[in-house]
Prior knowledge:
two-stranded parallel sheet; mainly alpha; elongated
Amino acid sequence: xxxxxxxxxxxxxxxxxxxxxxxxxxxxxxxxxxxxxxxxxxxxxxxxxxxxxxxxxxxxxxxxxxxx
Length: 68
């Protein structure tokens, strides 16, 4: 069941890659890291940018579950 704050992709006919269950944990850790880094460096630089080089398609389906 989708939570109220979740974005659900519409079926646009494009490929929706399947990913492993570790992906949710990776996203949680990356979010935590960027929050910590951004907070810690807010007085050092006026702007901070994080570039994720392995982001994929922007949405995916978690293998073996109904989550996407």
